[in-house]
């Protein structure tokens, strides 16, 4: 009834951002000329390489640091990153797959009810901040988890956190409070 | 990936008719440096469109001292044509050739490929008489020279490969008639030798071999003594300059291949030093030696163009550093990695730059953590069993090619929009030309 967490709430992970290093200098020009599916942004000094299989976009710097975005799970992110490193290796660079780290996970969740945001904000003062003129959602931060939730009046919640576990925990943590301020249909 | 044929798309561009003329003609840079005498310095004005050099120079009599010395008060480069060069100006090309202009010239840039070059090589030998005689003969040849100049304006490299047609059978005869002594014609840069030769060896029979057109856009002209066109070819004569040459040896030289003469020409044009060699030797046997020099010189110059196109050094990324705390430990590994990179050619410059930045951290970190802290070196990537070959490498192996310029290429997520212009399409075996093209694609 009240705080029934995990009411089979499906949390959909929409984006996983990860980084890894190749431990070797990368010649961006060579990648741009010889690699497939690359976009060379010479003005900012990076190469974007897009993969189809795990649909990811990787931003490659000449220092060997690579940021991988667009994966839908942590596993997929790692898989895609390895594939990317492999393709760089095939281009001739002495790539070593190191320092893989998931940096950010973005997930959405839908509550089966609508939420009264002003009331919610009043009840959750330190964590929640609401500025309707700027943004229509309440920004709820959980410091311990380093997670941020954006709660909309429709009941849709967007969560970003350092990993999937933190995201799930954040939703669980917020659910009771959100449930309190729900808009009940009479 | 394209690793199978890394530059497949490049070959497609090269093969396309859109770039037919562009790459085949070697260097595309119409850049050259003008070294003008001091007197012209302040009056020079240059514009992007054309360069007009005020005519105020009389025909100077150059001496050995003058040549190669500080004529260069004004060095500038400009990108465009046409160029109007008055008489009496020494021009130096970007590649170092010196040309002395004796008659006013208007240099324009042609399409790059003169049909003249296709003609078979012709050798014309001319006997050059006393300076006085030569000078009198100048006016006769001037119009022809000027003509040849403008028509033959090409890049140097192409010139080397394609001997120029000497159009004047009539001129030859004239020369022969006029010549009484044996003096050799020199290219403008070598005029000092020329003057020496003229003065010292009036007996020499002088032959002008127009082995190749080395007429860069600036046009090279002979000294006051010789017609401009003749100077172009005078390369060959340079060798002969050394001593009194009978028609015998010259005739033998006559038989030399065009290539040899071209090389010789190049040699002559290149530098004063090389000139001295034949000058000292009084025998035709000096020829082989000088030729060798010229060979190497020519090779070098020819290669320059290729290098220019392909060798663009990456200038970004040298200052890149790792942002996390493990810089110290990783530097050791980095050093090794730098050396191990296969693409050593391009990265040598970067290696030096980065090694400088690495020095400090290297010293510090050597005591600290071992490279193993590098963590989970993660299993070697060639457990790339899972890593599939992805797209077929023959993605570019198609006959439908568009070579064009772009106005804008836009992408939203995986939707691409192309706004192209001025292109040639080879599609379904047929060629199409367009001024504008718009395309949509999904990736």
Helix percent band of chain B? 25-40%
Report the span from N to C terminus of chain B. Answer: 16 Å
Strand content of chain B: 15-25%
The CATH architecture designation of the largest domain in chain A is 2-Layer Sandwich
- What is the radius of gyration of chain B? 29 Å
Query: Helix/strand/pairing class of chain B, anyone?
Result: alpha+beta
For the record, what CATH class of the largest domain in chain A applies? Alpha Beta
What are the secondary-structure elements of chain A, in order, as H or E? EHEEEEHEEHEEEEHE
Strand content of chain A: 35-45%
Q: Enumerate the strands of the largest sheet of chain B in spatial order, edge to edge or round the barrel.
A: 4-1-6-7
From the spread of the alpha carbons, the general shape of chain B counts as elongated
* Computed Rg of chain A: 20 Å
Q: Which sequence of SSEs, written as H and E, runs from N to C of chain B? A: HHEHEEEEEEEHHHHHHHHHHHHEEE
What structural class should be given to the helix and strand makeup of chain A? alpha+beta
- Give unreliable regions of chain B as ranges: 41-77, 112-262, 269-304, 325-375
Could you give the topology of this structure?
The complex is a heterodimer of chains A (186) and B (443).
Chain A: E1 11-21, H1 28-34, E2 38-41, E3 46-51, E4 56-61, E5 65-71, H2 74-90, E6 98-110, E7 114-115, H3 117-123, E8 128-130, E9 138-142, E10 147-151, E11 156-161, H4 164-180, E12 182-183
Chain B: H1 8-15, H2 20-24, E1 32-36, H3 38-41, E2 45-46, E3 51-52, E4 74-78, E5 83-85, E6 89-93, E7 98-101, E8 105-107, H4 131-152, H5 156-161, H6 169-178, H7 191-200, H8 228-233, H9 235-241, H10 247-254, H11 258-270, H12 272-280, H13 286-310, H14 327-340, H15 344-365, E9 401-412, E10 415-427, E11 430-442
Parallel strand pairs in B: 3-5
Antiparallel strand pairs in B: 1-4, 1-6, 2-3, 5-8, 6-7, 9-10, 10-11
Helix pairs in contact in B: 9-11, 11-13, 14-15
Subcellular location (chain A): Cytoplasm; Nucleus
Keywords (chain A): Cytoplasm, DNA-binding, Nucleus, Transcription, Transcription regulation
Family (chain A): Belongs to the TBP family.
